[in-house]
Design brief:
The protein has 304 residues and is an alpha/beta fold. It has one domain: Ribokinase (UDP-N-acetylmuramoyl-L-alanine:D-glutamate ligase, 3-Layer(aba) Sandwich), CATH 3.40.1190.20. The chain is built from nine helices and 13 strands. Strand 4, helix 2 and strand 5 form a beta-alpha-beta unit. Helix 3 crosses helix 4. It is globular, with a radius of gyration of 18 Å. This is Carbohydrate kinase PfkB domain-containing protein.
Length: 304
Amino acid sequence: MDDAIDVLVLGGAGVDTIVRVPGLPLPYADSYMIDSGIHSRAGQTGDFVALGLTALGLRTHHLDFLGDDPEGDLVRALHEKHDIALTAVPQPLGTKRAVNLVGPDGRRLSLYDTSRAHPGDRFPEDTLRSLAGASRHAHVSLTQPCADALPVLRDTGVTLSTDLHDWDGENPYHEPFAHTADVVFLSAAALPDPEATMRRIAARGRARIVVATAGAAGAHLLADGELTHIPPAVPPAPVVDSNGAGDAFAAAFLYGLLGGEPPRRCAEFGAAAGAYACTVPATESAALSRDALLKAVPGGGRPS
């Protein structure tokens, strides 16, 4: 295991099958001809956060369940290609999978296969404690069984972040994550009042920073009780797919935070990385480099 880890990424390893469709919502029809092909590639939320962190020069370790199957081989190959440390706990039910329908404007609809996890799954506590104890920070995915790992992680003293994705502010599954993490990311897509939800997260939990991303409208940053709007970054190329934009945002934000940058600049880093992610086709896995990020968001110091 690593002697020193900047960020331990917990959960969110899997394979997506990408299908480009003529529009979303997809009108009912007996069949569609998919000229762009149907592609399977490694990369779910934890994979993309780990990829983004590694591209920015942070020592990253990813811990999750993987099956002894072709999907697991794809995930292992992705980590080997990008030199991301990976601890894979055997999963007899197989590696997590999803199907992403991607529209012409880059929006996506994800269909997650929940059959590849068991309610009794738990990360080995010794492994979890050892990795967390060697880490400066841990980013926890929503995937099962990460909720059960939260008390152990908190007990180690490591700071925590999580991404609630498109939480509606009501689903109780998300609450342990929202109320345990020091930094909370979420999408504003399903929130009728993002500020109210953000302030409720901060009031009920431990979060000192809450960020709600809003796509082309930018992001909302709550830090030290003050709400700030972060304008969107200009994508460096045409937008082709929004898949992974939130993960890229979180990775770049954490890069800034661990480098001692103020929350606003961290959010500007996140906006730039998220905009770049929208220019990467869903069939590929790529992340913004540190030099490119600092060029896109000039000024300030250089996080280590």
